[in-house]
Amino acid sequence: MSKNITHGFHCLKGKSNHDMEDYVVSDFTKKDDRELGLFAIFDGHLGHDVAKYLQTHLFNNILKEHDFWTKTEEAIKRAYHSTDAEILEKARLLGRGGSTAVTAILINGQRLVVANVGDSRAVICKNGVAKQLSVDHEPSKEKSMIEKRGGFVSNLPGDVPRVDGQLAVARAFGDKSLKIHLSSDPDVTDEMIDDDAEFIILASDGIWKVLSNQEAVDTIKNIKDAQMAAKVLIEAAVSRKSKDDISCIVVRFH
Question: Are 178 and 163 in contact (CB under 8 A)?
């Protein structure tokens, strides 16, 4: 692990009556003499099995792509699609649920490649300013695409927009019963880690429902310990009445 990079994570079960549905990857590894930081939040719904499958398989599938080093974005997109296909094939075993995902691959501490489907989010802090690196895939924003696939977006009073009246995200892994109307296409962002970069946050939507990107950055900007920063961020979300399962990773560049 790079001497000048530290990382930590924290997870908290929400107030719902089901088991914790979030899974996290926060690790460093070596591949072809390069150092890789692998970070991910998988936020499951209708059960945790799809998120658990992603935790153990998605990065393996990404790194197996033959052109990962030369065509990184295309390789990640292919791996997202092939992993989703595996999940759909195993629907009897994994159940009818699904999962969002945000993944970040740090290459030699210098280049960060972020991909996501759903509403878990990656944010980088540069010179104290928050910059979002992922895209929130909300049904209201992708209504025309969902309708072209034969689905619909409902927005009942007092509720959030949902695909076919069920799912509050427009892209996800799994969800076999809705897949004809859902996408698993990731958005991919490539960011150079320069001297201005202070830290990145990856977190499930339980944080972003109650904290803006800048509020999240400001909450932890003076906390040097990455794991403590992740814990403090979750505590801040809970203090603002977030009731969801919450997972958070913080990666600090020193």
Answer: yes
